[in-house]
Write a structure and sequence with these properties.
The protein is mainly beta. The chain contains one helix and three strands, in the order E-H-E-E.
């Protein structure tokens, strides 16, 4: 998943943090966070679906 960082933008929107993704995507494991190369803070978030019992 590609997302903007948590810093607020001039238009009142803000991006997402790793903790927010963990909260919103229960049943998924946040396996990696890689910074993007854009001029504004961006990140690639790698999520893996948890299997039952894990």
């Amino acid at each position: 998943m590609f997302g903007y960082g948590p810093e607020p933008f001039d238009d009142g929107f803000t991006g997402v943090t790793a903790d927010e993704l963990r909260t919103r995507f229960t049943g998924w494991e946040l396996a990696d966070v890689t910074p993007g190369t854009n001029p504004v803070p961006t990140y690639w978030f790698t999520l893996h679906r948890r299997t039952p019992g894990s």
